[in-house]
Amino acid sequence: MRKLAALLKKEILQSMKNKVNRAIIVVPPLIQVILFSYAANLDLTRIDFTVLDHDRTLSSRELAAEFTGSGIFRETRLADSESAIADLISLRKIRMALVIPQNFERDMKSGRGVAVQILLDGRNSSSAGVALGYAQNVIAAYNLRSRGISAPVSLQTRAWYNENFNMRWFLVPALLAIVALLDVMMLTSLSIAREREEGTFDQLLVAPYSPFQILLSKALANIMIGVFQLTMAFLIAVFWFKVPFRGSYVLLIMISLIFLASATGSGILISVFCRNLQQAMLGTFIVAVPFVTLSGFTAPVENMPDIFQHLTLVNPVRFAIAALQELFLENAGFERMLYPAGMMGAIAVITFGTALYSLKKQIRG
To answer: How many CA atoms lie within 13 A of 76 on its CB side?
Structure first.
């Protein structure tokens, strides 16, 4: 234990020995969590649109007013023809256009069916689908008011765990895991590679330390750094972005430590096979990008092909995101945490054990 403590002290001092290293540990997680939380927001709260009114009557102006009065649609451009609408959409000046045909008011009053046209920018299918849903709701509300018809059946909806459909409540807990993975894996993978370039790793090998103690000290040092970074990110999530935390702090600490162990294990495994910093950085990039892609952050795991769903079983980020979201929003209990904790623990043991075996094999020959 004294040898391990000495190695751990050496790793911490090496990480904190200059201002640049200290800044790298503190500043990037803060910037990443804040920047990603604002930028990676899938909520559509403002839709720039235009109205092409061929009828120019009271009814057509009332319909246009329904859109602008909804608080979501904002009429920012004027269009006098379909070609002008095409230009505005092509230049990304608007997301949607409302085209009201001639004789709109006459057909409305006569009871005949009348159709208005919604033109959408389909280059972003997700935003287009959301905008279309909002437009359909506005038109449905206009129909009820203009015809004086009360619907015989009313639909009431209620969302569990995220009552206001706040996308940031879903994104921020996931970002905690992603940011921790990127930083901790990068720091860990660079540790051995840097020492090999500087020649200090060979000195460690001839010192009275076993390979197990060397790797464990590096893992523990980076886990401690990861705990500090996750704590900062957690405080930003709760106090800055107002994401509710409804779970147990004990379970949060347990999940965080196990996830950080799996991330450092992956980083150490990468570092053992790398001879210089460039190889370590490239190896981290090659591993981290699939981890994030197959984590369920950008697309649900259930929607992936079967082969990729099986690949996610070796991805610690998948289980960390699921566990953090359940702890933040659902107040999940100990039983719900057993599966993700067990899978991440298995990944940590396998990666660290493989790295230790490979290092011993390299030393022998």
So the answer is: 14
User: CA-to-CA distance for 78 and 59, rounded, in angstroms?
Assistant: 19
Give the model confidence (pLDDT) of 168-219 as tens digits: 888 889 889 998 898 888 888 888 888 887 777 777 777 787 888 888 888 9
Mean pLDDT of 266-283: 88
Q: What is the pLDDT of residues 311-350, one digit of tens each?
A: 999 999 999 999 998 999 888 889 989 999 999 999 999 9
pTM (2 d.p.) = 0.74
Report how far residue 252's alpha carbon sits from residue 243's, in angstroms, rounded to the nearest whole number.
15
Please name the residue ranges forming H helices in 199-248: 200-206, 211-235
Per the listing, tokens 């904190």 go with: 16
The Cα–Cα gap between 236 and 109 comes to 55
Distance, CA of 180 to CA of 120 (rounded, Å): 38
Sequential DSSP letters for 32-69:
HHHHHHHHS------EEEEEEESS-SHHHHHHHHHHHT
Whether the Cβ atoms of residue 73 and residue 109 lie closer than 8 Å to each other: no
Would you give the DSSP letter of residue 327?
Answer: I
Tokens 């795991």 sit at which residue?
Answer: 301
Alpha-carbon 195 to chain mean position: 33
Angstrom distance (rounded) from CA 269 to CA 267: 5
3-class state of residue 349 by DSSP: helix
Q: 351: Cβ–Cβ under 8 A, 6 or more apart, which residues?
A: 262, 265, 266, 268, 269
DSSP conformation letters of 60-128: HHHHHHHHHTTSSEEE----SSHHHHHHHHHTTS-SEEEEEPTTHHHHHHHT-----EEEE-TTSHHHH
Contact 271, 193 (CB under 8 A): yes
Measured distance CA(320)–CA(340) in Å, rounded: 7
Q: Which helix (H) or strand (E) holds 359?
A: helix 334-364
